[in-house]
Structures are given as structure tokens and as C-alpha cells.
Amino acid sequence: MTATATALPVSAEGRWITACLSERLMPERGVAVLLPNGDQAALFRTHDGTLYAIDNIDPFSRAAVLARGIVGDRSGEPTVASPMLKQIFSLRTGACLDVPEVRQRTYRVREHGGRIDVRTHPDEAPQ
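Above: the chain sequence. Below: its structure as C-alpha cells.
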């Protein structure tokens, strides 16, 4: 089950957006987050409780589906598989493990006060 975040508060400094309440993000599930500039992030909690966010737009199909992907790991690297064409992306780096020249942007995530926030700007541009 995938939940989609609605317009939620942006921090006073404009750098973080509340994606969802902590209790709403289940392990191995994704949430699509609409960022203030219109971009989308896919937010995940892995089985060990670690939070990750990468671009939600699948670069191969151009569909906004990565939040609905299958969370897993490849040799210890936390991953999500696109539900469209099944390419695997690292949740840590955004790199496509099947097509190394393709990379998704990653976003910082924090959890506090019973909510999960995503940084409004990516950590780095895709290569």
C-alpha cells in the first residue's frame, strides 16, 4: 500500500517539508512526496528503520512510480526496484545498479516529533 502525501507544512527556513507522520510510514513501503517546486520524492523506511528518499520519477518510463517499488537489498545495499521496468536503484546513492550511467537524485530525511521530513532540495544532481 502506498500513501501519497498532500500539501503539508514546510519548515520556517523553507528547507524541509513534512512528508507524513512517523507512524504512517511502514517498513519496506514507500510514500510519494510532492515538493514545493513540483518535483517528487519517494520516501522509504527499510526493515532496520533507516529512512531514504530518492526521485520518484522512474527515469526509464518517466512515470511517477518509484514510491510503489519493491524495497530490498542487493549485497547489503538498500534498494528499490521500479514497478514498471524493474530496474534497481540504490536508496543510499540513487545509482541504478542495472544501468550504472543512470542516477536518481537523493534527498536528506529526518524524523522527529512524530513526523518525517524530507529536504526540499536534492543532495546532488543526477549524473
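DSSP finds no helices and eleven strands in the chain.
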